[in-house]
């Protein structure tokens, strides 16, 4: 029986051992900095980590010299939406919903993922898209698969399949007059189990659902329930039955409790909170994604400019300060935080690291912020065996940074500071002196607005 189930694992550690050396290395597991580090890599994985006295580089070995630079793990954005429209691409997202085809949208999904990758995000958890053309789970999975197959360059992606009820906030964020396609939403435990299964059939890694209303709920009340406990229990159970993660959008403590009761793996957003529920979350294994980047004045203004409905703008303004308060409460209470931006509607895809600067402004240490975007993200998506830190046995997802993010987290926002982006031992971006290798060569503003064409 054991023999039958012995997996064939393709070799990942063949070929010569190659080396990277830098000025310092951020060890996010031990929360310390190693001076004069050397990393040895064979194939896709790290085989040795230490300082230049511990690791001897043999004569003639291939060395990537990152003298003066900080080596750190590739970053993970645990919550974003690459196939959402972006106002640098579309003048008015509501108009463009009628003009864009899923095929074109998928191309933008890849492009947006590449913009993040170029800025050091080697892993993205894309929590899906419900669009005017239906659920985009299969399109997102194809973007992921084309990258994994090595035919297109991009980050490693984990894809979420929306499994939500009729009239959920995801439904309402679209124009009311929009034509709904069949089985985009479902109601009752068995319909929802089927929708979850359909999402998993096309290949999603994460089942995403909404326990409460959200930015698209056109009511002032923050505590609108989206689904019953019976429904959320069914979705989480279905995800776990297929060994998938369940990610639950929650705006309120009532929603957070429902997610905890159902056994959810991650809770999305930090909006409203109370201490009793925060304590419960801190005592659980659940990770939370704050998604504060799209709560800023800048993000709200960008949304207004691209034609977002006024009720959504007003709602975003009214919840703004409570989002920041909730983050501070959750952080103080010891809730496990995985960095997530919810980028999608907001422009400037690739500026994800601004999220970390917000955390530091709100009281996190830069090291904690870096952990949220690396090891915590890997733990949240249950991939810490392979990802999230520079340790022996893990994938060589390594960045070389001009600057020291443990002292100045803002250095991660400037593309020229992201000098090397390596994924699984291969260098995709190299902006060191004399090199000019980028994943994406166009700059914001250089591409046309689709609804002007
Ligand atoms: Zn989201």
Give a verbal description of the structure.
The chain is built from 13 helices and 18 strands. The chain has helices spanning 93-99, 102-118, 137-148, 169-172, 189-201, 229-241, 253-262, 275-283, 297-305, 310-333, 354-361, 366-372, 375-380, and strands at 17-27, 32-35, 37-42, 45-51, 63-73, 75-80, 121-126, 130-131, 134-135, 156-162, 206-210, 245-249, 266-268, 287-289, 336-337, 398-401, 418-423, 426-430. The longest helix has 24 residues, at 310-333. It is globular. The relative contact order is 0.16. The model has no long low-confidence stretch (mean pLDDT 91). It binds zinc ion. The site of zinc ion has 4 residues, from loops.
Q: Could you tell me which ligands this complex binds, including any ions or cofactors?
A: zinc ion
CATH topological fold name of the largest domain: TIM Barrel
Which percent bin holds the helix content?
25-40%
Question: What is the count of structural domains?
Answer: 2
The biggest sheet amounts to: 8 strands, mixed
Distance between the termini: 60 Å
What's the architecture of the largest domain in CATH terms? Alpha-Beta Barrel
The CATH C-level class name of the largest domain: Alpha Beta
The oligomerization state is: single chain
| Residue runs with pLDDT of under 50 for 5 or more positions | none
- DSSP summary: helix tally: 13
Radius of gyration (CA) equals 21 Å
Approximately what portion of the residues adopt beta-strand conformation? 15-25%
Kindly report the name of the CATH homologous superfamily of the largest domain: Metal-dependent hydrolases
General shape:
globular
Briefly note the structural class of the backbone: alpha/beta
